[in-house]
Each structure stands twice: as C-alpha cells, then as structure tokens.
C-alpha cells in the first residue's frame, strides 16, 4: 500500500493512497501542492509533475492543475467536463478537453476492486 508523507498544521503525517481524492496546485504558494483526502487537506512542497511520477500511475492527470484518484470518482458530467466524487464534502473538479476522453476510458476500465 502506497503512502504519502504530508504536512498539516506543523505536523507530519502519513496518508494512504486509497484515501486521496485528488491533488491540486496550491493557489498562493509556489512549488506546493494540496492533497484532498478523506481525512482532510494536506500540503507538500513538491511539483505536481513529481507527485504524478511518484504515484506510479495511480493518480491520473486530468488538468494542468489536478491529479485525480480514479478509484474515488463517482461519475463524469460530459457537458461541463466535471469529475464527481463519492464523498459530497469533496468539491467536484474540472477535466480539460485534452484529457477527458482518456480519463473516461481509464475510469470505465477501472476494476471494481480498485474502486
């Protein structure tokens, strides 16, 4: 089981990959990303490309500022290219037109045990 070492309010915590919904760039801090998880919001100083690399294909790039865990996706809105999550507390995110077709194919082919 893959884990990420992340920061939250001055503490260092381990978060399992299975708890991650998506990763996004930080809106104000350069070279920082935010992990949105079932347990909360965590920060890490790292590029999105580096997170994508260390996730070993478990996080899918759906936009220049988002990586998504396909096993947490509940549905897709085709008209708005929006990704819907199982947990209502997690905000829906957009997918770029460039990645939407591949996202749809990979999500539909995700095995039940991965969800």
Automatic annotation (TrEMBL):
Short name of one Pfam family: LytTR
Domain HTH LytTR-type: 9-109
Gene Ontology terms for molecular function: DNA binding; phosphorelay response regulator activity
Keywords: DNA-binding
Leader sequence segment: none
InterPro entries in the record: LytR-like, LytTR_DNA-bd_dom
Record-given protein name: LytTr DNA-binding domain protein
Organism, scientific name: Streptococcus mitis
Lineage summary: Bacteria, Bacillati, Bacillota, Bacilli, Lactobacillales
């Amino acid at each position: 089981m893959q884990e990420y070492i992340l920061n939250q309010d001055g503490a260092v915590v381990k978060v399992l990959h299975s708890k991650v919904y998506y990763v996004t760039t930080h809106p104000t801090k350069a070279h920082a990303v935010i992990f949105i998880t079932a347990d909360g919001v965590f920060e890490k100083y790292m590029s999105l490309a580096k997170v994508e690399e260390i996730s070993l294909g478990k996080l899918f790039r759906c936009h220049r500022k988002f990586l998504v865990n396909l096993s947490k996706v509940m549905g897709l809105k085709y008209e708005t290219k929006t990704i819907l999550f199982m947990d209502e507390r997690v905000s829906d995110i957009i997918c770029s037109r460039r990645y939407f077709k591949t996202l749809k194919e990979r999500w539909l082919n995700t095995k039940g045990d991965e969800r």
